[in-house]
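Predict structure. Chain length: 241.
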Amino acid sequence: MSHVKIKFCGITNPEDAELAVSLDAWAVGMIMWEHSPRAVTVDEAAEIGAALKRRAEVVGVFVNPTLEEVSSAADIAGLTILQLHGDEGPVFCNEAARRTGCKIIKAARVRDNADIQAVHAFRTDFHLLDSYVKGVPGGTGETFDWQLLRRQRSKVPLILSGGLTPENVDEAIGIVGPFAVDVSSGVEELGNPRRKDPARMAAFAAAVAPAVEESIEEPLAEPSDDLHAEPPAQPMVADEA
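Prediction complete.
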């Protein structure tokens, strides 16, 4: 099994971003949807992106943006990945990749197996599966039934999100075996969605590593299950656009 990577999301300041990198984060996510309590402006994202250059993937999280919005934000903030959390279709994802040169995460909210199957229509670089809460595109802090993913097969690397914490991430990895895990509210300061708790961030990172070792010794997924695969060297969507 590949090493399970960590994406710290909802980052709003350079200090939390630096801590994420020090904890070996694969990616740092910034919410670029104005209705989120964790939203950052393009200028704030640019400051964080400049500090992280070449040390972690710089992810901009969007909900139903225009192509012009993602293109401008990617250029100004130095984004390397676009995470699309709304109703964007495959054509939009392809064009966003073509215009920006960024990799694409297509997010889906899971209620049942049909939601998981639907995301397979998106041949993006990554799929992110989050919990479904009516009227809320993400960041709810709630989990979903991870057992739905136990037998899922996909050539697109899976990022598991939704209610992950230092206390449950090892169990989630053992069941799902994702390429990466995504955490935001699970490592925040109590009552403050704009700041991360350093102790909880460190605990989350520490909880991921032993879960990987246990999964290697006792794999829970079928050998042919390739949700653990490394992402392709070149963005698939860019090639298809």
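Summary: Confidence is low (pLDDT under 50) at residues 212-241.
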